[in-house]
Design a protein that fits this description.
single chain, about 70 residues, 4 helices, globular, binds zinc ion
């Protein structure tokens, strides 16, 4: 399962999820991610998908306007 995710990440972003987590960077923008500075939900998201909040929004734009 982990390998599967890594493969997808590698294909889309050129970096695996494992690499991103090891280097503490975001898979999409390759910018450093400081998990302590994130909201709890965003931190969880980063641990699952390797995406920073910005990248997350780019990848899955919220449809409903607030
Ligand atoms: Zn990002």
């Amino acid at each position: 399962m982990k390998h599967f995710k890594d493969e997808i990440c590698k294909q889309i972003y050129g970096i695996t999820l494992t690499e991103a987590h090891e280097e503490k960077i975001c898979v999409c923008c390759h910018k450093p991610v400081v998990i302590e500075n994130l909201l709890e939900l965003d931190a969880k998201e980063y641990q699952i998908s390797g995406l920073c909040p910005v990248g997350w929004e780019k990848t899955f734009p919220k449809k409903e306007p607030k």
